[in-house]
Every structure is written in C-alpha cells, then in structure tokens.
Amino acid sequence: MSDTVHNRIETLVTTTPVVLFMKGTPLFPQCGFSSTAVAILERLGVEFEGVDVLADPEIRQGVKAYSDWPTVPQLYIGGEFVGGSDIMMEMYQAGELTDLLVKAGAARTTA
Known about the structure:
With 111 residues, the protein is an alpha+beta fold. Helix content is 49%, strand content 19%. The protein is built from 5 helices and 6 strands.
C-alpha cells in the first residue's frame, strides 16, 4: 500500500467519528454484508461516513492492508477498527456496539 493511500485512510478514520468502508453507498449498498452493516448503524441512529470501495480500487485494497482484515465492509469508530458485518451484528445484539458508540461520542443521546 502506498503512503498516499495509507494517509487517505488514516485521515478518514481519525477525522470522522464513524466510518464504514463498504461496497456501494449507504443509500445503495452493493452486497448483503454492506447492507447489514448500514442497517445496524441506521437502526442505532448513528451518523456515519460511507466509503464506497468499489469506486476506488486503491482504497479497496488499502483498507484491507490498513486493518489487516481481508474483507469489506469494515467499521471504524473513533479511529479504531471494530470489524465487519458479522462482528457488528454480534456486538449490536450484545449491546456492545451502542456502548462503543456512546464512548466515542457518536451515538444519539436519546434512545
């Protein structure tokens, strides 16, 4: 991964509270896993930045190297890698994802 791609990813995840690297966009996910990830975040009422990896092959490969995680979607909260849609679902069901979002100041205050 080039330094430029690494820096672009690092800037995104450190300047935006919640970032989802995904296939497609939040309004039009291009795979079931991305759709699940978006649905979880929307159900929690979280504002997030969706990054379409299909639109940028360098980001698509770069984010996998950046996180050392082989698949997309990838969720970052407060600059930290959380996981993919399966981990998001487990954390959501256990209430851990909400806790993490609250700690990062990214969750809605009224539930």
